[in-house]
Amino acid sequence: MEVTFLGTGTSQGVPVIGCDCEVCLSTNPKDHRLRCAILVQINGQNILVDAGPDFRYQMLRAQVKDIDAILITHEHRDHIAGLDDVRPINFRYEKDMPIYATKHVQKELEKAFYYIFTKPFYPGVPRLVFHTIEKDKIINFDGLQITPIEVMHGQLPVMGFRFGDFVYLTDVKTIAPEEMKKIKGVKVLVLSALRHKPHHSHLTLEEALALIDQIKPEIAYLTHASHLLGLHEEIQAQLPPNVFLAYDGLKIDIPS
Ligand SMILES: [Zn+2]
Ligand SMILES: [Zn+2]
Ligand SMILES: [Zn+2]
Question: Considering every ligand atom, which ligand is closest to the CA of 33?
């Protein structure tokens, strides 16, 4: 299984429009972060987790030509705003795009993209087909088993996903004990860490490190970083030896 970080930034991306802090002005490509998404390549399938506003550019930049399914973590715009851009895949391969989301997220997508779901269909609208995620039901996708993990983003439930020894959790503030059981024994963990100052719906760096200490994966990667987190090189230098600050374009291989 190969995982590519297509985007590792928080909702505004980094650099932030109009900001001249040292992170936003940094010339290190690792300080340039598109909105959060990963591509999981396994068994010849390309599975995308989240399609935010940078989806189109992420596909072009990573030279991804086809997507087999999209898993949606939650309905915030930084995770869904790019869904209209699945059209080239609909057209080129003459196929509908399977979208895995909870019932709640499906309703939010129907509001956000009303024109996709309103009959009579305008010719050329994206073709999305919903598949329902239930938090305690394993997703079977073409012989692949994906375990949904519910985390709390303040008051909002967000889906994380386990693919074998790999777990991806973004927009996390807290995790209930029964969901923590699903993460047990994970080898590679991705966890969101926004900044240093407390936030009502995101883990700080310090909180994320404490959670990693509790989960004890072999390796952890941090994502969903704000410009307020600091320069990539400086933050990386302060992390424990098995924790890495993810950056756009990073690829990791996980034996499956
Ligand atoms: Zn987010
Ligand atoms: Zn800035
Ligand atoms: Zn969010």
Answer: 2
pTM of the complete model beyond 0.85: yes
> What is the CATH number assigned to the segment(s) 2-247?
3.60.15.10
In the reported structure, the alpha carbon of residue 77 is separated from the centroid of ligand 2 by a whole-number distance in angstroms of 20
Q: Estimate the share of the chain in helix, then strand, then coil, as percent rounded to the nearest 5.
A: 25, 30, 45
Task: Work out the pLDDT band at 14, boundaries 50, 70, 90.
Answer: very high
Break the chain into its structural domains and give their ranges.
2-247
Q: Is the peptide bond before 15 cis (omega within 30 degrees of 0)?
A: yes
- Report the separation in Å between the CA atom of 211 and the middle of ligand 3, taken as the mean of its atom positions: 19
pLDDT in tens, 108-162: 999 999 999 999 989 999 999 999 999 999 999 989 999 999 999 999 999 999 9
Q: Report CA(8)–ligand 1 centroid distance (Å).
A: 10
Residue 171 CA to ligand 3 centre (angstroms)? 5
Give every CB contact of residue 227 below 8 A, 6+ residues apart in sequence: 12, 14, 15, 16, 19, 21, 23, 24
Under 8 Å between Cβ of 254 and 45: no
Using the mean position of ligand 2's atoms as its centre, give its distance from the Cα of residue 197 in Å: 15
